[in-house]
Amino acid sequence: MKILVIGASGLLAKPVVQQxxxxxxxxxxxxxxxxxxxxxxxxxxxxxxxxxPADLNKAVEGCDAVHISISRLDEKKATEAIVKxxxxxxxxxxxMVSGCTVSEANCWFKFVxxxxxxxxxxxxxxxxxxxxxxxxxxxxxxxxxxxxxxxxLGNQPNPYHWVAVDDFARMVATAYSKKEATNKIFYIYGPQxxxxxxLMEKYCKALHPEIKKVSVAPIPLLKVIATLTGKSxxxxxxxxxxxxxKVKEPEKSTETDTILGKPEIDFEKxxxxxxx
Length: 276
Description:
Blueprint: E1 2-6, H1 13-22, E2 26-31, E3 44-47, H2 53-60, E4 65-68, H3 75-88, E5 93-97, H4 110-123, E6 129-134, E7 145-146, E8 149-153, H5 165-177, E9 184-188, H6 196-207, E10 214-217, H7 219-229, H8 232-246, H9 254-260, H10 267-275
Parallel strand pairs: 1-2, 1-4, 2-3, 4-5, 5-6, 6-9, 8-10
Antiparallel strand pairs: 7-8
Helix pairs in contact: 1-5, 2-3, 3-4, 7-8
């Protein structure tokens, strides 16, 4: 099977590419800025824009499956274009990276509604599918450190089963290898639960000992600052963290672990792997 990975330069795509390669799949990588220097092995690489029909047609041509791992795009619009070409080219399997809180009930939040509508396009396409709904990744902790300071947006009272991208990659590759995984939604959760602030403190103690305190920036204040400064990135981040203050992680699904195997990397193991 030859798998086209769309969004191949992203944080979640690289480990998936490496694991799919390790499991014996042929790969083609597609994004606007993917390049060979990002990977150890050589791959069939196409640079292009998912919203450019010529680029997308060229990328899908000759592939058997499509894995969608995109962010910071209009996912509904992008998925609509991908599904259209996938049908024309006879794609046999399509997969997508979504999020653990994505559901119809949470579509009041635009970011989630976009992902949910993208999921529905895939489910209703008639093409066999795999949908992955991962929780928070350990790797995202790095994004909360700026200019030598660790800052949490809002008090974040809800615990999450934080997961390592390497576990996620293994589970994605396993799903591609198992017939019983087809046409299912998988919740990808790690083996431990943490409050975001508690985990940030552990992370800083282990990897950033110079940071003695994790600060909490109040959401209402951040909204005012985002409005006054016109900073779109701060506005988006504030909206996202405000959402997670309100929405809890859904119950853990036993089906995911049964079919794809349990995640094995806890926080301590993740720290060891990161320092290697």
